[in-house]
Amino acid sequence: MKRMADFARDGADGDTIRMQGDLSLARLGDLPDRLEQVDGGVQRIDLTDVDRIDTVGAWIVHRFARDRGAEIVGLSEAGTKLMEQVVAADQPLSSSAKPDNVAMRALADIGDATVQAGRSMWGLLGFMGATVLAFGNVIRHPRRFRFNAVVHRFEVVGVSALGIVGLMSFLIGIVIAQQGAVQLRQFGAEVFTINLIGRLTLRELGVLMTAIMVAGRSGSAFAAQLGTMKLTEEIDAMRTIGVSPMEALVVPRVLAAVLLMPLLGFYASVVAIIGGGLLSWATLDIPPITFIQRIREVVPITDLYVGLVKAPVFGAIIAMSGCYQGMLVESDAEQVGLRTTSAVVQAIFLVIVLDAFFAVFFTWVGWI
Q: 63-92 pLDDT, tens per residue?
């Protein structure tokens, strides 16, 4: 049976403390308290008779030796290594940190953000390539096409969004009409409010605001759904049984967004025109028939084409951003929230960048 930790004074003047027994946490007993009550000088601590010593015991011995200025002797090789680690851990930490330079820290943050954005864009580009390959596989093997999944995404992306997209577009049409009428009234040109409503909603705001709304609704939902499936290892299970996650999860979502964005964009533009027409009728005394005739005269068909061309591209970007960020989820549930936020921010940013590109491109080809 292991002996309890104990000590005794030895030496000509009692200047040696001889430890014995088991200097481990379970066998220390009241040894620390009794050591504190030791009077007189102590020059050395002899651990020759110690059966076993652990980190707690080594710390107590070291602290006593440090406070009394004593030397520790009699340790075995393993005990000596343990004591060296305890002594090293007892050294005061030296802080060599320099005062923060605000300018350098700001530059470092900007650099980190730029690198992270570049990596994210590069990863998204690779994900787009993988999505295209998945579409190619589905086209070559039509039996892999999941029709029910696509129809379900139609409901999630399109049908469920009709209410909020319609309300948003109606209010935007009212705002455009009201602000346009106020500014144009200064020049006696209130009638050109119709031009502003028709061209702005069909060409730009109808599709752009719809894309932002879809990114907030569907893009975030895609990231959260796939992220949760990644955490619960459902995606790994699909790979194990030979089902491609790109074909089963990503392709239906991307296809639904690409097909429904033109319809939602056209619907939003029409509702915005209705809202602007109602305000024009109420404040500018422009009858609905006159409003519609004027819309037909001043809005070229190319404005509709511009919106319909941009819409599927926006839908593809939104869906792929959401799926890509969802696939990056790892380790814990907090990642789901972070990746969902990243999906929405990334999708909206790319939509606005592409909208600026399309504006320059269509002006260059003469669709103005």
A: 888 887 788 888 888 888 888 888 888 776
